Known about the structure:
Blueprint lengths: L5 H9 L18 H8 L9 H22 L4 E3 L4 E5 L6 E5 L2 E4 L5 E9 L1 H8 L5 H14 L8 E8 L5 E9 L4 E9 L4 E9 L1 H18 L16 H4 L4 H4 L3 H6 L9 H37 L4 E4 L2 E4 L15 H7 L19
Parallel strand pairs: 5-6
Antiparallel strand pairs: 1-4, 2-3, 4-5, 6-7, 7-8, 8-9, 10-11
Helix pairs in contact: 1-3, 2-6
Amino acid sequence: MLADIILKVAEMESQQEQEYRPRPSLAGPQRCIRQLVYHGLCVPRKPIPGRAVLIFDDSSWHEELTADWIRKSAFQFHSQQMPVTITDEATGIVLPGHIDGIITDILMVDRLLEHKAINHFTFQKYCAGEIPLDYVTQCCLYVRGLQADNPSISEAVLLVKNKNTAQYMEFLIHYHREADTATILNRTMSWGETIDMGDSIENITREAFDKFHLIDTHIKAKTLPARQYDRYDDETGWHCDYCGWGGLCWEGYEHEFESLKADGMLSAEIEDMVRYYKELGAQKGDIEKKYKALSEQIKKLIEDSGHRQGKAGDYLCKLKLQETRTIDKSLLTPAEIQKATKVNQSKRLYVSHAKEAVS
């Protein structure tokens, strides 16, 4: 009755596209510039799935839940959703926004509070030491805006909640206005662990305003900047997979790729990297051969001893029979093979020794 319509309603809501405008939540270096130019040019995007809309909506409710718990502590929590405007005199860009709130401790020190509710996998990345650059940028822009009325505010608490486990992590950030530098003082976990960091990010708001200025330039000229992420890259390609303009952005890339020059003289830096790449490849091949041969020897010795499982000192060894299923294409018609074939593109690097020029 309801389960089958809620996601459909959410997807219909998502199709009411908001007009692009510069704002602090889009200011960080990890937010794709090309994506924002598409938005600013009013290019239609692929609709956001209803489930994704509900996931985003959940984050605002997590913020409310966290606020209720903070109010039960010794901290004062106030100024929720207070409007803040950040102006850059150099570019004339104005960023309107609303802060999550301000916390005041028992010593009456005010700090900006920015709350984020994220998935478990992203939370684990931050636990491993990755810095949430977009969130830090947003915090510093808000602190800069608050300082217009309250110059004593120089710190922000970036409170990150794991939506899957209800664990929290907190980054204490100091923003130095004159130097335009963010310093991440420490990171505290909900299980009591605090790690001193001291990481500094220079020109943090300057680069944000320069980014919006570049976006405006492209929108006015109706041009697109270079792609910020590569859909063929195993590390960063997910940005394109989740982007509503990803399909359009990479449409016709095969022709674009073929138009690249095929007779260039590459830099000395690339030469050094390729030399090291070839050395690693030779070592990898040799190691893989030894690894496979050693595996066969171990399996034979275990089976010859009359075992399929046993302990060898500190190690537990086990032999298992595994099935591998393959498809015999000779039993299928060409039409059936074509229908069942999925094509995935990837970029591969081939390196060989260049032939000496004949004089």
